[in-house]
Amino acid sequence: xxxxxxxxxxxxxxxxxxxxxxxxxxxxxxxxxxxxxxxxxxxxxxxxxxxxxxxxxxxxxxxxxxxxxxxxxxxxxxxxxxxxxxxxxxxxxxxxxxxxxxxxxxxxxxxxxxxxxxxxxxxxxxxxxxxxxxxxxxxxxxxxxxxxxxxxxxxxxxxxxxxxxxxxxxxxxxxxxxxxxxxxxxxxxxxxxxxxxxxxxxxxxxxxxxxxxxxxxxxxxxxxxxxxxxxxxxxxxxxxxxxxxxxxxxxxxxxxxxxxxxxxxxxxxxxxxxxxxxxxxxxxxxxxxxxxxxxxxxxxxxxxxxxxxxxxxxxxxxx
Length: 319
Prior knowledge:
single chain; D-Maltodextrin-Binding Protein, domain 2; 3 domains; about 30% strand; elongated
């Protein structure tokens, strides 16, 4: 079945969502912002790869996974997973403010904590607080903040504390020793809703396009050739990151977010030029920006300017 952005299906054919679990993760909080998701079946996955595999195999219609954090940047597991394999399509993005608490085993104080567990991105966002308040504690990575919180209940887990969301600590009845331990008070994580390729959301005027662009040939100016396709048409890039392909040392692709929709003339023209340089580029979708921020488009890069230029050229060719 096709999945309309943010909507469920008829009762006879319910939409099944999956997300990076377990229950209580920030990813679940992001999924619950999708209209209709709260009343739909939601299946937690153990990793980003497993969530996306559920979509690719047809066991779920859509998945919500983290893609970018305001402190740590792109989420490597997601950027790598969507860059290859069966193509997926981003239907929408969701922004979630991130706050953390320190949950401990009952009876422990800060000085008693020998090991603390959490997700690597959460640890990066709380590292300064940890170094100042629990410098003796070793860090043990977990697959998610919620996974660390759940494991804290197991006496055999091997750690004394977990950094997690207030929601999961409350759900599990954990002992919260300190709240608000993030180093950046207004940290935000960006999540995306992905499905198999389906119809594009209509342009809103405040959209984003996500691409995977392999570097076809490593030579001086190769990256500039890619960037020029956007700058010459007035398309702003809100994110660009390089990631190794894993094939051999020095082989990279670029993960790019560009302001605009593929139905915008400037974006469509940029993608045409980009395809000539990197024919294996991957289009991951055009979708509404979560912040509804409209880009400033120079007059000569407007849709009307492109239409007039096409009309002028056609007239020349007709003689």
